[in-house]
Amino acid sequence: MSVAAIEPESSTNGLLRAWRELDVPDGWRAEIIGEGISLMPPPKGKHNRIADLIQRQLYRVLASDCGIYQTLGIWIGMLDQLYVPDLVVMPVDLLDDGEDPYPADAALLVVEVTSKGNADTDRKTKLWGYAHAPVPLYLLVDRWSADGPSVTLYSEPSSGRYRSMVRVPFGKPIPLPEPFGLDLATDEFPAGD
């Protein structure tokens, strides 16, 4: 599969050009959310630990033609939004043929790990955006849920909504369907800061 550079014909075109030209400090992420560019500071230790634990489990079952990326910009064309998920599983040939950002609908899975300051963005804005892309699987690791730390897998996107949702508390495995076919362990996920 080859990907041409994404050049939307919308008012966000200028934002996308600015995003590509930004000199973001190491570890920071720039995303187009709403009508502007948002900068996010580097995640803290427990956030990174969760991403590492997920990545290690995914690599055990991942096909050789796919990769897991931590700083990949993905474009949601119909919404003129650009997100940089904590983890994104994408076919490797896309990265050989394209230029950041990549089409979100080519992602097999996106993972967001909430931070205290952005939890609502991951729970609402990005949930809505990924469903519109449509990204087939959205894994939300919510360390700050009011009901306690949890992991939610959203699947079956249709008409801008996910039709299926499975939620488990930290400590319980969450099943990831094919192409992963994995019960993702969450028992080592640290909660809080």
From TrEMBL:
Residues 22-185 form the Putative restriction endonuclease domain. It comes from the Bacteria. GO terms for molecular function: endonuclease activity. Keywords: Endonuclease, Hydrolase, Nuclease. InterPro entries: Nuclease_put_TT1808 (IPR012296), Restrct_endonuc-II-like (IPR011335), Uma2 (IPR008538). The keyword Transcription regulation does not apply. The keyword Nuclease applies. Coiled coil: none annotated. It holds the Pfam family Uma2. This is Uma2 family endonuclease.
